[in-house]
User: What shape does this take?
Amino acid sequence: MGSSRLKTRRGRFGLLAVLALLLAAVLVATVLVVGWLVTGRTSSVPYAGPALYPAPQHISGDGAALDFSGKVTLVMDETTDGAARTALDTLVREVAREVATTTSAPQGDASAAGTVVYLGTQHSGGGPLEDALRGVRSAADDGSRTAALGRPEGYVVATGTVSGRPTAVLAGADPPGTFYAVQSLRRLLDGGRLAAVSVADWPLMGTRGVIEGFYGFPWSSEARSAVLDAMARSKMNTFVYSPKDDPYLRARWRDPYPDDAIGEIRDLVAAGQRNHIDVAYALSPGLDICYSRASDLDTAAAKIASVHALGIRQFVIPLDDIGGGLTCPEDRSRFTAGGSAGLAQAQAWFLNRLRDRLEADLPGLAPLQMVPTEYSGAETSRYKSRLGRDLDARIIVQWTGEEIVSHRITSASASAARNTYGAPGKARSILVWDNFPVNDFAQDRLFLSAVEERDGDLYKSLVGMVSNPMIQPYASLPGIATYADMTWNGPAYDPAASLDAALADLAGGDADALAALRAFTDLNQNWQLDYHPHPAPALSQDVDAFWSAYRSGRTTPAGLAERARLLERVPQLLTHLRQPGYATDVAAWSAAAAHYGTAIASAVRMLGAVHDGDAGAADAARSATLAARDAAVVRAQPTLDRGTVVAVTGDGVVQQFLDEALKEYANAFGG
Assistant: This one.
């Protein structure tokens, strides 16, 4: 009897255990289903390879690690985007021992093809690319891939095994997406190795780019080409040609381009085409245009048509920095709204007719854009209200934010600007002309910080954002890279991580060059002259640690002296960067940084002598400090319109440290 009851109890316990396991399994499945419903994917293996910038929408470690150092077979055909084909072939040949190209999936011995890479634009009709993509389906749900391949410029990078062959699939939703898949592979490769990875990605902001829109020396054709190549690596898609000191854009806008200038524009268009970057042309007639004069409308249309013949399909009419009045009697008679409203009335009349003319004569253009004379601030004005009322709703307005150089750009402000520049009840499409990291207003400085204080959800309010860089094109590259990261995926943007990744990319694997680049960048963080949130942060940390120890009688840490020695080597180490133009761009500032490095090192020795009461050694070190400080402030940087200026660096932190150190000497020995 007892044995029978025990068996019964055991049976019940066993049944309960089975039920518990079933319930647990149901709960786990429910969690997975809920997770899939919420995130569009199941749990995935964490990705463990090099960081991908811009930050993707989805990335995991699902798939298989691949070897690109041996034989690699590329599967792509004539329908695959030509720029993507060229970029992939060039990239793989940098790391592979042997590269073969075919138009169909490899057959026969699985090992003969080595690592197989499929490249193309996904088509609903199937084919080798689609078959391979299905073959490397990962543990991650396909929802994110479907999303990526259903959005403009979206792409997928997937790894795995297909028919026993190690395989990578680079698939784009369209030709730009296919090209971006290759750019992501460039970032993900670590030498000849690719970690297991699955990426599904697309941009949140539609227009992402650069506007060469500063006052000062226009960039050379070679520099523009280098900038566009760098923009492509960061998945930007727009370059606006608008240098204020190109006379044929502004002062001599009516005149046709000479042959040499036409050649430069043609080269720019070609650089854009190989990088999937749309080149826009900005004609600025506002200095002396007569808006109502038919001949000026004809001249503007003809000038645009001449540039259109070179391959440009986007056009902007900047009417900024021109004064607030009408310049010809015909306009003053015709546009009678008065004051700034009359100017807006005239501009809208001209732009509407120009838009209609271009649509009739040059079909297939992107929507016309304009820069208003009142181009900042979201508050209403007589000018903005009249412009919004009269301007064709299809014309996009470029806007700089709440200020000309905006500390912050918020979604609320952008939404307000849409209404301010729009007609009553109809919001205007707005593109931000962002004056970051432009330095034409302070040509004695470099601004090398990451872009900050832009709301992550601006893509919901704007058609795009473009960065107006510094006069120095190569020195602008890291800042442009951070801008690309911010506009591609604003919610995931990390300014510090983005900037450091850009510096590492520029250093090209040279550890000493990277250390020098980081130290030099640290000295030039203050983009806004009236807003100084974190001057030279790494140097500041070393200075603070030094003074804390020195003034408490403790042994001073070595960090400041080591930084000083590194700064002394900056000019030489920057010549090792991947882009040699950087060292040339910053030569005056890097020389000043080296002199400041010597001054800091001498000041540290001086303070040591002060501590020891050695007047002779302190005096000699003081003389060296003063000589190095003076050498750092000589006029060495030429400008277009301001003569030769002193290259200012250090964000004030170096100067403050030297001043305090010299006071310590004076307190101890006088003088």
Notes: DSSP finds 22 helices and 19 strands in the chain. The first helix runs from residue 2 to 39. The chain has a mean pLDDT of 92. The chain has four domains: 1-39, 58-201, 207-493, 537-669.
